[in-house]
Amino acid sequence: WIPNLNPKDLIGGVIIWDHMTDDRRLVEATIRSAVRSGAQAFENAFVQTYRFDSQKNIYEINVERNKEKQSYSARKLIDAGGPWVDKIRARAQEGNGDLIVPVAGSHIVLKKFVNYSVILRAEDRRVFFVINLEDHSRVGTTERIHEDPDTLKTLDEEVEYLLCALER
């Protein structure tokens, strides 16, 4: 049972365990493992371009790190650019459309107020979550199309939406 949960129209519940995985540490461990196996990781590097040389059967990659331009060759290339993946592909003139829909989502972080991580439904029937992280609860998420991940800002109406949904 979750204290202060409004039982009106309640027909069930879901407890989630997402808080048991630290996403950042998982990504860092994956990178370390790949590097131990011979990969080169360009974390925090600006990928200027890349191209596949079919004659040599390798990728040629140009990056900029710490204001220094560097070139590399590789048999395999993994673009883990997240929301920037389509921008990276465009600089490499790799076509056939976008791979992702550029969606922005906002979260708010509050002092932990419930013992469980849960999925809830807002009045407009969209789901949102409360994920506990030690002594804090992360509440989210909103969704809206936003083309440029470098210019993201949380909107006041997104915070208001999450607070109202949580209060309900």
Describe what this molecule looks like in 3D.
The chain has 168 residues and is an alpha+beta fold. The chain has helices spanning 23-36, 85-91, 156-167, and strands at residues 15-16, 46-53, 58-65, 68-74, 103-104, 107-111, 117-121, 127-133, 136-140, 144-145. β7 (117-121) and β8 (127-133) form a beta hairpin. The protein is elongated and about 65 Å long. The mean pLDDT is 89.
What's the end-to-end separation, in Å?
A: 17 Å
3D shape:
elongated
What order do the SSEs take from the amino end to the carboxyl end, as H and E? EHEEEHEEEEEEH
Strands of the widest sheet, in order across it, are 1-7-8-9-6
How many β-strand stretches? Answer: 10
Structural class: alpha+beta
**C-alpha Rg, in Å?**
21 Å
- Share of helical residues: 10-25%
Poorly predicted runs: none
Largest beta-sheet details = 5 strands, antiparallel
Number of helices: 3
Give the overall average pLDDT: 89
The share of residues in extended strands comes to 25-35%
For this entry, give a set of tags.
three-stranded antiparallel sheet; alpha+beta; five-stranded antiparallel sheet; 168 residues
Compile the SSE list and pairings.
Blueprint: E1 15-16, H1 23-36, E2 46-53, E3 58-65, E4 68-74, H2 85-91, E5 103-104, E6 107-111, E7 117-121, E8 127-133, E9 136-140, E10 144-145, H3 156-167
Antiparallel strand pairs: 1-7, 2-3, 3-4, 5-10, 6-9, 7-8, 8-9
In short:
The chain is α+β, with helices and mostly antiparallel strands and 168 residues long.
